[in-house]
Design the sequence.
């Protein structure tokens, strides 16, 4: 099991996010559901909540400020909320704030939720792809050589 990461390999090939194993028998049958949640569910729900509702509410604040003067703090506040709802641990919060901030600026730049949803799905897909392609972390008594764990 990898410590300090958002996803880690658990017993029988299951995945654990924040210590909660994803149900599965280790055969990989849970992967389609995981990819569906990461590529469709999370981007759709999280972007609707954080960039669709919260960012838009904050962005439509009192007038008199330039567009950028409202977009930046709105993106930052919605990014902090976005980071805090992810149960990935304290070390991931700065990364998630940066991701949420970028998604907020993309939302403002494009004026639509489609661009941040697609960006979010791409980021989640790449994260899962790297996770599944990454060799197992070395355990006690194992070292990593050029060809992988030995």
Sequence:
């Amino acid at each position: 099991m990898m410590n300090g990461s958002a996803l880690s390999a658990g017993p029988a090939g299951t995945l654990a996010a924040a210590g909660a194993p994803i149900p599965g028998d280790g055969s990989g049958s849970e992967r389609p559901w995981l990819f569906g949640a990461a590529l469709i569910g999370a981007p759709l729900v999280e972007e609707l909540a954080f960039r669709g509702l919260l960012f838009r509410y904050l962005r439509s604040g009192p007038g008199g400020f330039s567009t950028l003067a409202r977009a930046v703090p709105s993106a930052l506040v919605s990014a902090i909320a976005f980071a805090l709802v992810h149960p990935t641990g304290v070390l991931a919060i700065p990364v998630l704030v940066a991701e949420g901030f970028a998604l907020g600026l993309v939302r403002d730049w494009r004026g639509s939720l489609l661009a941040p949803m697609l960006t979010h799905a791409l980021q989640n897909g790449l994260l899962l792809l790297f996770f599944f392609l990454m060799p197992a972390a070395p355990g006690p008594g194992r070292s990593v050589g050029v060809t992988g764990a030995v």
